[in-house]
Input
Amino acid sequence: MPTLRMVLAERITIPVRLLPRAYVAGAIYPRQAHHAFRERPNLLYHMAAKVIVPEHTMLITPLSQGFGAEVSQFDCAEGGAPEDIARLQQAYSTYHLLIFRSAKPLAPERQVEITGWFGTLLAEEARWTTLNNAEPSGHVVLPFHSDMSFLEDPLAGISLYPEALPRTATTTSFVSNALAWDRLTGADKQQLAGRRALHIYDGAANLGFDWPVFTYWHPACIAHAKTGRSMLFISEHHVEQIEGIEPAQCKALLQAVFAVLYAPEYRYEHIWHTGDLVVWDNFAIQHARPAAADPADGQRIMRRVQLGKAGFMAQAQRVRQASGG
Ligand SMILES: [Fe+2]
Output
């Protein structure tokens, strides 16, 4: 019989035998406890509404922003029992972003394995790549975007793991396309539903790449592949045009939509620590690099694994051929 303990916060647990009986009853019957104590939101209620879990059971704790969840009591090096993987996949479909904390250095092959639980690994490119702040692509400020949304097949998912971190804190910001759609006004939803948005990327020259200008029309509202949930699919980095809407009206619409999508209280800013592994759904979540990663502050090397139908190089090649380049 495993020891039971009550989880009071992310990392604070108390053995059940030390708790008053009322707390334990409330934990086993949280709904009843909620009714009993909702008029008096005191400490007892907060304790009683938590759950009792056997020791060593993997925990998935949702973030307060309404998307994303942190995985704890999970062994990143060895863990992965079928029931844990099933729970993680379920959580990924619900929260769209998972944060793991690895106690030991995570081998690239293991990052590939864990990321592969959440989708199809890109077949035709390297299984992992690195983003290094010694190069422009690894240190410039990046506005919010979904990777490769300017191509026919954007990435389905991404994982990042820091191989080296600078001396001062470095972050990646995230917002939810799914939550944003829910929060839009009825009038804005009506304007966007059924229309497509033009995703453009012509900034490659600034990063020292010889790529053509990429453009692709995607629906402004897409359905989540697994759950069918409606999600906004436009970003400040790549979208300035919605089909069938005059430029001035479109500008005003995008301004209103971006104010909802990027509202500070709905952002999650991940401060990177050694051992962090963050996996996210690239259709459901947008990410940004809010500050430049100055190489003078130390190396910032992020190891990246990608999920999706086709990689960047294969699609870029297709675009080149189609344009006769
Ligand atoms: Fe990106």
Observations:
- Residues 28-49 have pLDDT under 50 and may be disordered.
- The CA atoms of residues 30 and 265 lie 28 Å apart.
